[in-house]
Structures are given as structure tokens and as C-alpha cells.
User: Fold this.
Amino acid sequence: MRWILITVVCVGGCGLVPERGASLVSEAVSVPAHADGTTPLRPQPRPDELATDLETTVEPPEPQVSAGTLGRTVATLGNAAEPGMWLKTPLVSTTQPGRVFLPSTGKTVDVTLIPIEGPATAGSRLSLAAMQGIGASLTDLIEVDVLAG
Assistant:
């Protein structure tokens, strides 16, 4: 019987705790008002600090060779069982050495460019090794720059 009485007293007194606790918190956090009656805000970054943050944004590098650029193509994973570093693309008419640049990662790999039929705007197929070399997702369609030589 004593435990029931103690429980009732404790639970009954709990209703007072939030009110007292709330007043303690509001007293501790009170911030003096400005002379014009407004409450001061938290410190905000100065405009010159914001500009510095924006200026430090790093953009992926663009390829340095523009004269040898054959074009940009959308590529997907080619036959994963076919070994080597290659790109099958309609951007070339003969098999030749070349490079593939992925702007989003800034990585370039040397590949063998292999012609396929279709308009220059058609997509291309990239080998598994080349996809991994430029850091591309194997399941995505990616835009790559194709460079001769």
C-alpha cells in the first residue's frame, strides 16, 4: 500500500516539473533587447566571407587538348566480357588510338577507338576497363569527350 501512495505522489507532482523547467530555461536563455526593442539575431557571415566560399568551389578540369577533340558522346557499358580499353563509337571511321575524358571526374584513359555504324549523334559503348579507369558508374549513361591520338 505504501508503494502505491508513493507512486501516486510522484506521478501527481510530475505535472509541475515542465512548468518550472520551462521557466528556468527561458530565464537562462533570455537575451537583452536592442535599444529599439528588437531582439538580436545570431551572428551571420559577412558578405565577403560568403564570396570567399563561393570562389573556392572546385570545378572538374576540362581536357587541355581541344584541337584533337572528335566530339562528345553518350556512352554506356559495352560487352563486359570483351577485354581491353576501347570505345566503339560512330565518331571515327577507322580504328585508331584515342582518349576518353569524363568531365565529372576529370579522369582520362587511353583507348582504342573502334568505328560503329550510325550518325555522329548516336551513342557509344565503352569497355569495362575504360569505365573503371575514368571512375564512371557502370549502370549510368555518361557523357564523355572523345579525343584523337
